[in-house]
Amino acid sequence: MADKRDYYEVLGVDKSADETSIKKAYRQLAKKYHPDMNPGDAEAEVKFKEVNEAYDVLSDPDKKAKYDQYGHAAFDPASGAGAGFGGFGDFGFDINDIFSSFFGGGSSTQRNGPVRGSNITVRLTLTFEEAVFGCKKEITYQKVQKCADCSGTGAAKGTTPKTCDHCRGSGFVTVQQRTMMGMMQTRRQCDHCKGTGKIVETPCGECKGSGFTRVTKKLEVNIPAGIDDGQQIGLRGQGSDGANGGGPGDLNIIISVRPHAVFERDGYDLYLEEPITYAEATLGAEIEIPTLEGTQKMEIPEGTQTGTTFTLRGKGVQYVNSKNRGNLHVTVVVEVPKGLNREQKELLEKFAASCGEGNYSKRTKFFKKFFKKD
Questions:
Q1: CATH number of 264-364, picked from 3.40.50.2300, 2.60.260.20, 2.130.10.10, 3.40.50.10540
Q2: Is the pTM of this model over 0.85?
């Protein structure tokens, strides 16, 4: 990890940079080093990958927090930085921790009734193209599931939990207390079985009597074409297992999409700034513009002004679960030539003189006349 450059240095931002600044820096560098802009340049390809790796971390609040604390070691399995999950580390938790952390158990909750498993949320980062066209991605996440060795009973093989003698399996006991108002009865959780109604005399060696273990699961997920940054995919029943016959929770996948080096996306519409020459704007031309499917020819009418926007219908992003598509909006920017030689300047001066005021806009003519000195 020592040979890796600092991610903030890679993007050219400081640690106090906000999400907008990080995204802006990424877009500029991604465009600069994009393979399409640098064909055959191996160094640019390396830098492009480095920029993407830095943005993948700094654009994700969770990853960014870990990186700020541990640096590159946060994502190095060999370093041990940030090891463990939710404080369980080596899975040496007891049944109290399991129910409290994953099944919403509390001192007033009857733990021997069905309890639904917890939902799990993961973040998945996609490239612009993966989000636009759809893809299949394998995700890895951790979940709590019934212990395979004891089938969720918490008891060692060959044994079974017994009904708690103190609460007779209810999970609660009635306690009498003498108060100023006389004898009062209160109902509270049984201290012997911790509200489960069962006593495990010989705990399972795998789950330490909890009946649950934390496992790492891999799952292939279909990403629909057209999904956008911040949207979620919900997979029912893929969360943590429930207790006492309760159903499993869900898996919620939050989508993050890396910005594109050329296109800006707003909903299902795409926006593109396309530079054109002074001659092309003046005389009109047929130019090639990038689209999602490759380049396409587009007509530039004679006398096109900088900032003019052309709309190509149906060339935007496909709607999720639909064949309809948004539009591509192309805004042309006229580039003023620089570094003209003497001959070019003379030709341009002749051109300007030949035009006179005939080619000025009505607005320009008005201001020239208004401010003309007597």
A1: 2.60.260.20
A2: no
